[in-house]
Each structure stands twice: as C-alpha cells, then as structure tokens.
Amino acid sequence: VVWVTLRGLDIGLRRSGCAAPIRRSLLVRIGALLGTWFLAVTAAAVAGAWLDLEAPRALGYLVPALALSLVLWRAGWLRAAVQALSPSAIPWLQTLRIGGGLTLFAAWASGFAPWSWAATAGAGDILVGLGAAAVAALLGTGLAWSRTAAIAWNVFGLVDIAHTLVRGLLAAPGP
After folding, report:
1. Which of 37, 38, 47, 64 has its CA at 20 to 30 Å from residue 31's CA atom?
2. Rounded to an integer, what distance in angstroms lies between the CA atom of residue 132 and that of residue 143?
3. Are 150 and 133 in contact (CB under 8 A)?
4. How would you classify residue 172: left for phi > 0, otherwise alpha for psi between -120 and 50, otherwise beta?
C-alpha cells in the first residue's frame, strides 16, 4: 500500500512539473512517515495493544490519519500532483480495498472479528474495490456519463466506509 501510494504520488509530481530534488525529498519524507506509521501499528498489533479492552484503539488509527489529513489539506504540491493525474488514476488506488475486505474475512476466520461486522464490511470493501476497476476503465473511455458513474461509486464507497466504522464500533467488545 505504501509503495502504491508513493508510486502514484511520484507520477503526479512528475506530471505537475515538480523539480526532481523536491520530488525525491517529498517522496522520502512521506515514505518515512507512512512506513513508520505502518511499523508502529504493526508493532502495537503484535504486542496485543488492539486486543486490550482498556486501550483507546481508535486513537491509534484516527489521530495519525487526521493529523496527516490536516497537513496535506493545505499542501499545494499535493493538489497539483493529484490534478496532473488522469481521472482514472484515483479509482485504481481503491482496488486495494479488495485486500482490505479479504483481510476482514481472515480476521473473522481467525476469531478476531465478529461475523456480523466482517461479512458486511468485508463484502462492501470487496465490492468497492471491484467497482474501482470498472469505474477507472469507464473514466478512461471519456464517455459523457462516466463522471456521473464515478460520483455514484464514490458515494457508495464513502457510505461503505462510514457503515464499516459504525458497525465496527458497535460490534467491538467493551463498554
């Protein structure tokens, strides 16, 4: 996921005309941040932090994601990089949700997630990921209604994420 994110960003930065030294510096810093976050979350998982009912688990995911979002919200270089990508590039990144959906089914099979949550959240992620490939291909055709289909797919993906978060919080053990 980190590699795909950095690769897409690199393509956008190249197309936006970002100078090579600046591009490399941005990619190294963002890669280091994403890699560190990934390793920290993995280390916490191996240590059992996510299984501790007293630990504020959601903070381990939400705080870094929100902090990064706030920083990137104002980043002009990121806006230029994304705008330089073809419209079909963004949906292609969402095909990674297929792996997320399969991971949720694996978590259920391993006894780490309840079926009531894994089934709906996993199936939703897989559907969004498969739809991403279709929407990306459709956007590449340039058909007049492809933008409308992409918007509908985005709404479905956002509703799925919101549904997954709410169901996950409701299905989690604890007070």
Report:
1. 47
2. 16
3. no
4. beta
Distance of CA 91 to the CA centre of its chain: 11
Q: Concatenated DSSP letters for 52-87?
A: -TTS-HHHHHHHHHHHHHHHHHT-HHHHHHHHHS-T
Cα distances (angstroms) measured from residue 33 to each of 43, 130, 142, 155: 15, 29, 36, 29
- pLDDT (tens digit, 9 = 90+) per residue, 66-124? 887 787 777 777 777 777 777 777 788 788 888 888 988 998 898 888 888 889 999 99
Q: Which residue shows structure tokens 């799925």?
A: 160
Whether 157 contacts 94, CB under 8 Å: yes
- Cβ atoms < 10 Å from Cβ of 113: 21
Residue 139 to residue 28: CA distance in whole angstroms: 31
- CB under 8 Å to 157, separation ≥6 — which residues? 94, 97, 128, 131, 132
